[in-house]
Write a structure and sequence with these properties.
alpha/beta; 40% helix; disordered N terminus
Amino acid sequence: MSEENFCVLLVSSAAKIRATYPEYLRCHGVVVETADDVIEGLAKAVAHPPAVVVVDDATPGVGDYLTELRDLAATRDTDGVLLVSSVPFEKGLERQAAILLKPVWPDDFFGKVLQLVLRREASHA
């Protein structure tokens, strides 16, 4: 896996999530960018499209953010989207994102991100 293909963008309005979730990934050598709102998250995704975008459902504007990621040419290739959710998801959302329900254990979180990155690499091989 190349470092370029293994970059993750984490979008969350919760400082605790932005501090802890990336550590799960960095311990395994993953490059992680963070954004504290969907506007910053979209700007970072457009500037440097990540392999995977992890979005916390508590962040205001998440639904529109997921739609924007799919609609913009610059981020259309970001096919790994992981929604970390505290509640069951809306019908249809599962087609836009993989979903993990909170609380998320570190191994489950890393495993899901790794699964999305490997799927991306396989589709681009």
